[in-house]
Amino acid sequence: MRMWARRRPIGLLAVLVLAGQVAAARADQREDFLAGRARDCPRCDLSGQSFKRRDLSGADLTGANLTDANLHDARLVGAKLGGADLTGANLNKANLSRADLRGIKAHDAMLYGAILDGANAVGADLTNALMGTARLTRTDLSKANLENVDLRKGRLGEVNLAGAKLNAVAFDFATLRNARLDGAEMVEIRLIGAELIGASLVAADLTDADAQGANLRSADLTRATLRRANLRRANLYETKLDGAVFDKTVMPDGTTQP
Fold this sequence. Notes:
There is one protein chain. The chain has about 260 residues and is largely without helices or strands. The chain has one helix at about 1-35, and strands at about 225, 245, 250, 255. It contains one helix and four strands, in the order αββββ.
């Protein structure tokens, strides 16, 4: 017992030394990244830093703290940002094509005109983000949280939003051709003038949705909830409505069903 007691401080000292070395290595990594000498900085604290127009294609920023960072017009093609915190970050016009955005936190982030084509954003939290005119062709946002997001005039062809939270999202005049929205929460969503040709909205909840003038031609609304939804002047040609729930729903001709 005495020998163990004597050796214990040595072991603790070794742990402290190792921890210090790891911290120093991370600090060096952060400095190299900020100076442009390195492209990777996983789990680094980069909050409030500016990377405007910087080419970070393929960079590993997994789990990094990028709150309030300036990534305006930055090139992040194929970058690894899984689990990163981008709260309040400026990503306007940034190119995030094919980036790994799984589980990111991006509350109140700005992504106006950003490109996210082919990105993997499963489970991402983009609550209150400003994403007008953003491009998300074939982006995987399944089970993501986009509540109260502004995506007016966005281009979301073949996007996967199955099981996503889309309550109060503004999709005015957005393109969602062949999009997957099965089981999505779409309460109070705005789809004014939106194009949803061939979109799948099976079992989606569109309670209080405003879809005036929306093009839902050949869309699948099987078992969808349309309570108090406004479909005035919407195109429902060849739209599947089997098992859909109507309750004070305003139909394309202005009548209410039932």
